[in-house]
Amino acid sequence: MNPPLATLVGVRPHRVDGAALRRRxxxxxxxxTGASRGVGRAVAARCAAAGAHVVLLAxxxxxxxxxxxxxxxxxxxxSTIAVDLRDTDAARDAxxxxxxxxxxxxxxxxxxxxxxRRDLAAYTxxxxxxxxxxxxxxxxxxxxxxxxxxxxxxxxxxxxxxVGTVGxxxxxxxxxxxxxxxxxxxxxxxxxxxxxxxxxxAVTSVHLPLTRTAMSAPTYGRxxxxxxxxxxxxxxxxxxxxxxxxxxxxxxARAGAVATAALxxxxxxxxxxxxxx
Length: 277
What we know:
Blueprint: H1 3-8, H2 18-25, E1 29-33, H3 38-49, E2 53-58, H4 61-73, E3 77-82, H5 88-102, E4 107-110, H6 127-155, E5 158-165, H7 176-197, E6 201-208, E7 211-212, H8 217-220, E8 228-229, H9 230-243, E9 247-248, H10 251-262, H11 264-276
Parallel strand pairs: 1-2, 1-4, 2-3, 4-5, 5-6, 6-9, 7-8
């Protein structure tokens, strides 16, 4: 896709100032969740190349070890913690382990997530779909973040980057559980960000458009819609780590969120017609 068109549809990767990223994370600890594949793995590689000690978190310990081996072979430093964020006690224990072993991180990239496209009728008798996504996308990330944010505040600095979706401002049929859990975390971040700012801790919400990863493959694997690659999405995250912008999102997602809030009835009717078709 040519650069002007990629910019228009909001999928052109951002440029990242490598020297600026190194100043932010070089010689410091960076925690990345969902680091065994996709966007998380790409972010971890960039931060390790910038001189960070990257702590990799995900459910699959074997996959994490493989990522860590690749990072160290390239001259980086990496540690691993296998944790399932659906277990909030385990998520909190993982945070305490990070603090005990490495101290407060300079950067927490809350990237882990789980997606499911399923209409209401299809999960009426599958409430476990709701609890599973709530654990990975909302409760687990908060349980992990609370001890780390407390340590950042006590130190007087730090940064939390949350990797979310444009769907938080543009909820759509079929994505009710995924959007609700991601939007819940986003609302929590909007509320705590002003509290943290006074203690030198920044919060960034990255609202990614469609990104080609293993998570999106079941729904969009054959789609021809414009999309970011995992590495392209990682540039959004790393640029956010440098700029500390409050929100990173495509222009059309911000415009659509305004329209959705201003004209809820109209947008609802349009969405209902599209869903019926």
